[in-house]
Amino acid sequence: MTGASSGLGRAFSVALAQRGAEQVLTGRSETRLAETCRLVEAAGGAPPRTVVADLTEADARRRVVEATAERFDGRLDLVIQAAGVGAYGRFLSHHPDVLRRLLDVNFIAVAELARELFPLLRAGRRPAMVIIGSIVARRALPGRSEYSASKHALAAWVDAVRCEWAGAGIHLLLVNPGFTRTSFERHLIVDTAFVKAEHRRSMTPEQVTRATLRALDRRRAEITLTASGRLLLMADRLMPALVRAGLARWTRRLYAQHQVYDEPAQAPQPERLSGGSGSPYNQDAGD
Ligand SMILES: NC(=O)c1ccc[n+]([C@@H]2O[C@H](COP(=O)([O-])OP(=O)(O)OC[C@H]3O[C@@H](n4cnc5c(N)ncnc54)[C@H](OP(=O)(O)O)[C@@H]3O)[C@@H](O)[C@H]2O)c1
């Protein structure tokens, strides 16, 4: 389980513990991972093995794979990749590092970890991998250009690799949540929005978890969550011009109109990039 130290990954860890699964959990924050372990054990689960790792680093991914192989004797039935970060604001107001970091975390790290876990999954029983995408994996949103691009890349990769891995008996499920009540927005690596989006009709992580596990049991290929998310994707297919106009209006409401093209570029916040336990990023109270 990646992203197990917070939000959706933590909710998955607890739900799987309730189903009796043994787990290897990974995240960057040791303290938050320890809190997830406490919740897993409180839910009746076996004490998980934890690996503190920034998954954008090849060495860290290798440690995760080695710990997983050791814990499960080289066989793996289920991988849930829930780690991810976001960035809000207009593309031109962001430093190029924002784009690079989001592609690294949300796409390249996920694909490379999957590559390294393939031999373990291939040896598993009815093996499956769940990838957490987003509504923006299928309809990009203004003010989230880098995030949308990273999730689009992820969805395209899943579409291709799902077919490649079918012969090996490995199932891939892409889950596209809408707004979910986690710490995601507190962990944005940059946020230059002037007005916060309203998150009415958002889901809880537990609702996302339940819907995902149901879809996994039914061997679904992809699910889209929240009614408003599904509505957006349907409207985009049927009336793309109208959706474009609506999103342009929405952008004007969220971001100030002045100096759109000549603001200084905003770099990612350094404390949001490192998950080391001494960083301010890690001093958030819980989730
Ligand atoms: N919340 C939403 O509204 C929403 C909607 C659609 C999709 N999603 C997706 O759902 C997934 C989970 O997000 P969330 O809402 O649960 O947010 P969250 O509470 O911020 O959790 C993000 C998780 O990703 C981990 N992570 C971030 N960067 C990492 C890195 N470089 N290496 C390893 N782990 C890293 C974090 O670990 P540390 O905390 O230990 O650093 C944390 O466990 C993400 O892929 C996100 O894009 C969320």
Protein architecture, described:
The protein is 46% helix and 9% strand. With 287 residues, the protein is α/β, with parallel strands linked by helices. It has one domain: NAD(P)-binding Rossmann-like Domain (Rossmann fold, 3-Layer(aba) Sandwich). Helix 1 (7-18) packs across helix 6 and helix 4 runs parallel beside helix 5 (145-166). The radius of gyration is 19 Å and the shape is globular. The structure holds NADP nicotinamide-adenine-dinucleotide phosphate. NADP nicotinamide-adenine-dinucleotide phosphate is lined by residues 2-3, 5-9, 27-29, 32, 54-56, 82-85, 105, 132, 134, 177, 179-180, 182-184, 187, 275.
Mean pLDDT across residues: 90
The major pleated sheet works out as:
4 strands, parallel
The molecules bound to the chains, other than polymers, are: NADP nicotinamide-adenine-dinucleotide phosphate
Helix and strand pattern: HEHEHEHEHEHEHHH
Strands of the widest sheet, in order across it, are: 3-4-5-6
Unreliable segments (pLDDT under 50, ≥5 consecutive)?
276-287
First-last Cα distance: 17 Å
- Rg is 19 Å
Task: Give the overall silhouette.
Answer: globular
| DSSP summary, beta strand count | 6
Counting DSSP H or I runs of 4 or more residues, the number of helices is 9
* CATH superfamily grouping: NAD(P)-binding Rossmann-like Domain
